[in-house]
Amino acid sequence: MNRLLIVVDMQNDFIDGSLGTKEAAAILPNVVGKIREYQKNEDDILFTMDTHFDHYLDTQEGKHLPVPHCIKKTKGWELHPALQELIAGHDYPVYEKYTFGSSDLALAFSRGDYNHIREIELVGLCTDICVISNALLTKAFLPEVPVAVDASCCAGVTPESHENALNAMKICQIQIRR
User: Fold this and answer.
1) What is the pTM of this model?
2) Rounded to whole angstroms, how far apart are CA atoms 78 and 12?
3) What is the residue-level pLDDT of the chain in tens, covering all 178 positions?
4) Which of 3, 20, 125, 132 could in theory staple to 165 by disulfide, Cβ–Cβ 3.0 to 4.6 A?
5) b/e string for 43-65 if b means 16 or more Cβ within 10 A?
6) By C-alpha distance, which of 30, 4, 69, 57 is closest to 178?
């Protein structure tokens, strides 16, 4: 079975940087374990990276969330070192994204780049913003492929918004693994 793991925005700013939370830090070992599992099975893995620029505060998002984060080429923008270590020497696709959902990933889905995939699982940050956006985007472009989210490998802005997002995804026929 060809599986795809989508690792959403496991970047320093979301774990222990400007928007980090204790919940985000707590899922890091679970995400590392999940990536190792997919590597061991030689399944597909891709990463998304929230990417902003110096003018972030002038953007729509910056006006609603006035906390500069994931500014390209800064330490906060980089994947967490634990993930960098795991992927060193591998050529996994990385989708820089400037919105909550990755438009480049949607284009890859629409081009058929992932037509060989039979199951997709998402993990990462933040459940209630970027994970849900990418999960729904994935479901929209690949409606017949089972899509799942591992709740133990995700964290939201708050524990309550994390649960709300999981419930919303479940209603949209995304399997929630606990």
Assistant:
1) 0.98
2) 6
3) 699 999 999 999 999 999 999 999 999 999 999 999 999 999 999 999 999 999 999 999 999 999 999 999 999 999 999 999 999 999 999 999 999 999 999 999 999 999 999 999 999 999 999 999 999 999 999 999 999 999 999 999 999 999 999 999 999 999 999 9
4) 132
5) bbbbbbbbbbeeebeeeebeeee
6) 30
CA pseudo-torsion sign 172, 22, 44, 109: positive
5 close to 45: Cβ distance less than 8 angstroms: yes
Separation CA 156–CA 149 (nearest Å): 13
Strand order in the sheet with 94-97: 94-97, 44-50, 3-8, 119-125, 147-155, 175-177
Structure-token match 């994947």, residue found:
79
What ranges in 20-118 are assigned the alpha helix state H? 22-40, 60-64, 81-87, 103-111
Q: How far is CA 1 from CA 79, 83, 170, in A?
A: 28, 24, 23
Cα–Cα–Cα angle for 23, 122, 138, nearest 5°?
Answer: 135
